[in-house]
Amino acid sequence: MLTTILATALVLGVLILVHELGHFWAAKLVDIEVSRFSIGFGPKLVGFQRGETEYVISALPLGGYVKMEGMADEEVTSTLEGDSPHEKRAPSPRDFDAKPLWARFFVISAGVLMNLLFAVVAFGFFAHERGINLPVVSTVAEEMPAEAAGLLPGDELVAIDGKEIKVAAEVGQTIAPRPGEEFTLTVRRGTEVFDVPVVAETIREYDKIARDTIEYGLIGLGFGEVQPLGIGQSIVAGFQTTGQWISEVASFFGRLVTGRSSPKELGGPIVIGQLSGEFARAGFWPLLNFMAIISVNLAVLNLLPIPVLDGGHLVFLTIEALRGGKPVSMEQRLRFSQIGMLLVLGLMVWAFANDIMRLVGA
Predict the structure, then answer these.
(1) Using alpha carbons only, what angle is made at residue 255 by residues 254 and 258, rounded to the nearest 5 degrees?
(2) Which of 35, 90, 131, 168 shows its CA 20 to 30 Å from the CA of 347?
(3) 81 an active-site residue?
C-alpha cells in the first residue's frame, strides 16, 4: 500500500509539474505576469511567495495550473483554482491577452510540448537500457493463425498490409484492434521475401479496466530478439515510441467518440495509482516507461478541443488567426469556457465513478 501511494504521488506529481513548468517557462520567456504556480486545484495547502509568483500545493491533486494575468476565462477557472493570490488590477502590457498571437500560441502549447519531450526522453532512456524487440519470430503458437499460415521461428516481419514494421510492438498494435480481419504479412526468410495472408483470431476475455468482455485480434507470434541501442538510436527510438503512443491514444479517443470503445474504459487517478504501484514493484525502468505513457495520455487529453483545456484555448487562438487578428468576444469565450468546465468536471466524475466501480468489482 505504501509503495502504491508513493508511486502515485511520484507519477502524478512529476507529470503535472512537467506540464505546468512548460506553461510557466514559456510565459516568463514572453514576459507574461504569472501570479500563481500550483500543483493541484482548490484551496491552498502550503506555499511561498517568490517575486511576483506564489508557488503552492493545493488540496485536490488532479492537475495543476499556471495563473497568468489577463486571461479572458479566468472567471470560470477561478472556481477550480481557489482564491486568487492578488487583487484585481488594471490591464497591463504583461497580460496574456495583450501579447501577440504567436506568443499566446507558444505559451498554451508549451505544457503539451513538455509532456511530449518528457515522453521522448523517458522512452529513449528505456530503449537504451533495455534495447528494442525486433520483429523476428521466436515462437509460433500451436493451432493459431500464424502456424496455419506457415510462419516459422527466425522469420522476420517486414510489413503488415504494406506498412513497414520496425519493432515487435508494432505487430500487436496493428493486429489487436482488428479481430477477425485479414492481414497481409510481408515476411523475410533468409534471402527470400514473400507475402502471407493471415486472419486474426478473435480473442474474448474480461478486462478489469473496461469492466467488460473485450475482443482483440491475435495471430500467435512471439518475439524475443533484442537489439542493443546506442545513444543516437535511443533518441530516435524515443521519438518513434512517443509517436506510436500518440497515435494509440488519439485512436482510443476516436473510438470512444464513435462508440467503438466503451466509456467504461476511461480511468482516473485510482487506476493510475494502482498501475503505478504495480510498475513500481516491477522496478525503476518499467515505472519510467509507464510514466512516459501517462505523459503522452496527458498531452493528448489536453489537446482535446474543449474550452479550459489547452486544446480549447488553441481553438480560440486559431479562430482569431483566421479572422485576421480579431479575437473571439469575451462573452463567447466565457460561455464556451463554462460549457468546457462542465464537460471536464463530467469527465472527472465519470472517471472516478469508473475507478470506484472497478474497486467494488461491479
Answers:
(1) 90
(2) 35
(3) no
Q: What is the pLDDT of residues 21-71, one digit of tens each?
A: 999 999 999 999 999 999 988 888 899 999 999 999 988 877 888 999 887
Distances (CA, A) of 182 to 50, 165, 219: 61, 17, 10
Q: Which one is catalytic: 20, 54, 69, 201?
A: 20
User: What phi, psi does 16 have (nearest 5°)?
Assistant: -65, -40
For residue 322, CA distances in Å to 102, 103, 145, 319, 326 come to 13, 16, 52, 5, 8
Q: What domains can you pick out in the chain, each with its CATH number? A: 2-128+281-359 (no CATH), 133-227 (2.30.42.10)
Answer for the pair 310, 109: CB distance below 8 angstroms, yes or no. Answer: yes
Residue in 235, 202, 197 with CA at minimum distance from that of residue 218? 202
Tell whether pTM > 0.85.
no
| pLDDT tens digit sequence for 9-18 | 889 889 999 9
Q: Which residues pair with 199 in a beta bridge?
A: 182
Torsion over CA of 26, 85, 16 and 263, rounded to 10 degrees? -110
User: Beta strands 132-133 and 137-140: pairing type?
Assistant: unpaired
